[in-house]
Amino acid sequence: MSMRSQVYEWDASRGTAMTVATYIGQRISIFVGGVGNNITKPAETTATEFVVIEDIACTPMLGTHSEVTNDTNIRGLLTDKGIAGPRAYVQVRINTTDYFLDPDNIPNDGIPGAGSPYPRSINFQPSFNLYPDVYVLPGQVWDALVTFYNNSFAGTDAAANELMAFVKYTLYDGPDALIANKLLEMGISINPGNVDWYKRSLLQAQA
Amino acid sequence: MSMRSQVYEWSNLQANANQLRRTTSDAAVAVVANREYDIFTGGIGNNITKPAETTATQFIVIEDVASSPILGAAVQIRINTTDYFQNPDVTDMVGIPGLASPYPRGANSTLNVALATAGAVGSENILKSFDLYPDVYVLPGQTFQILYSQRVASDATSTQIVSAFLKYTLYDGPDALIANKLLELGVTINPNNVDWYKRSLIEQQQRSRAVAGGQA
């Protein structure tokens, strides 16, 4: 099991439920942000691990018009100021560097939930796929940061499915992490197919 | 991180004119009909600090543009002063309609401003009819704009919320040089081909070393 497909799902209502008024407009780490379900320590790769982030997504939104009554349920999302959903974004941070930038090279809020929705449905389909993938090299710390701007929540605390985020990544460890590093040096995309190809080419060279 | 997938989302939500960051007090502002708004520096909605441009060591490949499928919205790409989408008679046009390239995908194409209930939102799920292929290249040193326009003005009281979306890949540093090289060679610029070019350079070096080693 040296190449493993992994996912992490965050829901602001699980664990310590998020108080909406405190966190609106703030960046929240989905791993160690203190609200929602968290993990025990910041996400990081050891010296023998390599992580390839393949997809990120968060709760979508849908614009309507300004006079729609607050808390109206539109396509499963509550409305505030005419916006259905939390108007959420998710940014990837590697060590201290934000991955997504505006065209003026200033870090932005990240991928909008409307562009990369979680969960996907007929009503909310992705406009974005994370390609090229994001590589987390051995020894790096990484994070996914959610920001939301709309108070589309039923209560003072987040309820289930009102604000969620999702990360899909592949974890390479042991010898496969070494091969991933080698592929990176060679300028070859790191994916399970190419790691297997490299192993086969080593075996062929030995034979 | 020299090849990075990037997105930019604009909407007519703001607390103040010429606002740079999104805020929690943003509200919908009216959009005038048949006027082109630069989604980066157009003055309404979320903006950036300066016109979008590539530096001498950057290369941008625009892979998708989209807009709300309501109010006859459309998006045009302008590189320096040249509009990308034209009519067959080479006259100006508004660009890709939101109905052909909707954002969000699956959104409604009708919005009844007379209703304040869930019935205001049409039940349609608009899917894309348009794929931006071949991609649009923004060469080093060029300025680019994404121009949003709508045929129908916003309602005076029930202001509709509209958005535009841009997906692009930013190549910088050595990868931008490779992108330029691929352009010269007439090869499509995408992450796979940039990687292919890197591999071919490495193989070439290895062959040269092997030949040099054989001669020594």
Summarize the structure in words.
- The complex is a heterodimer of chains A (207) and B (216).
- By secondary structure, chain A is α+β, with helices and mostly antiparallel strands.
- Chain A has one domain (3-174).
- In chain A, 15% of the residues lie in helices and 31% in strands.
- Chain A has three helices and 14 strands.
- Chain A has helices at residues 20-23, 175-186, 192-206, and strands spanning 3-11, 28-29, 43-44, 49-58, 62-63, 73-74, 77-80, 83-84, 88-94, 97-98, 111-112, 134-136, 141-148, 164-173.
- In chain A, strands 2, 3, 9, 10, 11 and 13 form a six-stranded antiparallel beta sheet that branches. A four-stranded antiparallel beta sheet of chain A has the order 1-14-4-12.
- In chain A, a hairpin with a 2-residue loop joins strand 7 (77-80) and strand 8 (83-84).
- The longest helix of chain A is centred in the C-terminal third of the chain and has 15 residues, at 192-206.
- With 216 residues, chain B is α+β, with helices and mostly antiparallel strands.
- Chain B has one domain.
- Chain B has helices at 174-185, 191-215, and strands at 3-11, 13-14, 27-28, 37-38, 58-67, 73-79, 82-83, 96-97, 136-138, 144-150, 163-172.
- In chain B, strands 4, 6, 7, 8 and 10 form a five-stranded antiparallel beta sheet that branches. In chain B, strands 1-11-5-9 form a four-stranded antiparallel beta sheet.
- In chain B, strand 6 and strand 7 form a beta hairpin.
- The radius of gyration of chain B is 21 Å and the shape is elongated.
- Chains A and B meet through strand 5, strand 6, strand 8 and strand 11 of A and strand 1, strand 3, strand 5, strand 11 and helix 2 of B.
